[in-house]
Amino acid sequence: MPSGRIHVGHEEVSRMSDEEKKPNINTIRYAAIGVLAVIITLALILLILTYLGENATNAGELQASIRIDTHDESVFVYHEGGDPLDMNKIQASINGFSVAPERITLLSSRGLSFIPGNVLGIETAGYERPSTLILWYNDVNGEKELARAELIPSFTIPASPTQTQYSTNTRPVQTDTIITEVTQIAVNEQKPADDSKRGPIVQLWPLEPKVTPTPPPTLEPPVSGITFEVSTSSGEQPLTVQFKDTTEECTTNRLWKFGDGEESTDQFTSHTYIYPGTYTVTLSLTFCNEHENRAASEQIHVEPITRDDSYITGFKPATIQPGGRLNFIAKNNVDLRVGGRLYTLKENDAVKIELRSSGQGVITVIGSVIIDLVLPGSTLSINGEELARGSVTQTNGISFSDLAVSELSLHISPGQSAEIKGIVNGQNVISPNTKYGYFIHNIGPDSLGKMIIDAKEQKFVVQAGIKGVTQMAVPGPSFPPTTNPYA
Fold first, then answer.
1. Residue 148 in contact with residue 103, Cβ under 8 Å?
2. Are residues 458 and 321 part of one domain?
3. Same-domain pairing of 288 and 262
4. CB–CB of 443/410 below 8 Å?
5. Which domain holds residue 253?
6. Tell me, what CATH number does 270's domain have?
7. How many angstroms separate the CA atoms of 470 and 436, rounded?
8. CB within 10 Å: which end of the chain, N or C, has fewer?
9. What confidence tens digit (pLDDT) does each residue in 239-268 have?
């Protein structure tokens, strides 16, 4: 029906069509777009205000990357990026005492600005060490700490040990006591720190001291002003060596190359050589003034570790101790379960397994194959990258080359008398029926390449090469010596 007005009686009625009663769709669309535009505009305004506020907050704040490199008598400070610094506003303190301004010198440029790429020298001769050096910047915004470093005393090269013996509560001490026969047992009767009755440690093996004197390090003459120190230049694997850059000139870059593919840029550093051989250590430096590279080198001689063939077994609980390490090169693709997950060892992967906790376990190595490997909490690293932590369970045999086993020890619990057989190099070194506890030190493959360690439930077996056996003369709480006393 067309729209319009009709008359009903004397009244006029207005009637609209259905189309005219519907809302205007275009009007609604335009209104929604307008609202959205307002929201977007407000959001942009808010972002701009936030940005301006942050800039206003940060205005005047100092931004500079500073690194401190310490030496015996001097400290070098490197500006590695950021704002230039006014030399007149730079201050230093050592253990809270101000360093005189004349001891702070701008080395690698002229002027009064410490800018990126420049080096400061701070003379620290006469200050007590160890101490803390703090570098400050004092401007209109107040005092700001730029960097700090610990000034440590220089280490000295230790004398070669003759014979080392361990007590229950001390680190290694020098002693003239040695063992010449099975019946002549050397005893260290120092008491534990807590005065508990744990009794002395008795050294049961080796029967004769096996001491290889370590010659003092022979350093080459300084090369173009480069000098460095090493804590030792020879010893049995694994050999840990400390290195110290003692070069007094200002340098901007440092690189140690240890001769086995590993590197470091630290001034004071240490490195462990896992495998025997002769390694050339090279220290390369870039000097501040000449902007040139120079290098000096030193040789480190690592001897193969020697162990005694042994067969020790008995009806006592035993646990594999933390600290032991197995390094090897995988020669087949095989799965290893660590912490409940499978990890695939690929051919030529460099594998390291390090024990983190004590517990029962099984290790069986015959020739160049690891047949059984069940270990308590351990760390698995492949090609230098740590991948997993947890208990280890081998699923298949692992073929390997270059196996190096270090610091692997077994603790035999004291308690009720039990039958034990302990033979080292064909000689019985443990009482057949004993209640004592023992530590078997530095276990590894024997002369035939065999290493069997089976420590589970109430029985244990060790058929391998060992470095030593220590007996607790009085049963008591178990505790391992901190280090292998025969290494």
1. no
2. yes
3. yes
4. yes
5. 228-303
6. 2.60.40.10
7. 10
8. N
9. 999 999 998 888 888 999 999 999 999 999
Six token digits for residue 225: 């002003």
Single-letter amino acid code for the residue at 371? I
Find the helix or strand (DSSP H, E) in which 19 lies.
helix 18-21
65-82 pLDDT per residue, tens = 888 877 666 788 888 888
Q: Read off the tokens for 244.
A: 């110290």
Choosing from 151, 172, 188, the residue where a domain stops is 151
Please list, in sequence order, all residues whose beta carbon lies within 8 angstroms of the beta carbon of residue 404, skipping any fewer than 6 positions away.
237, 238, 274, 275, 325, 326, 327, 328
Domains contained in the chain, number: 3
Please list the residues that pair with 357 across neighbouring strands.
Answer: none
Predicted TM-score (pTM) of the model is 0.59
HSE-up of 440 (CA within 13 Å, CB side)?
A: 31
Token duo for residue 114: 């410490």
Q: Are residues 355 and 463 in the same domain?
A: yes
Take residue 402 and report the two structure tokens written for it.
Answer: 């270059």
Q: What is the DSSP string of 259-272?
A: SSS-EE--SEEEEE
Please tell me the distance from the alpha carbon of residue 249 to that of residue 1, in angstroms, as a whole number.
106
Alpha carbon 81 to chain centroid, angstroms: 28
Residue type, 465: G
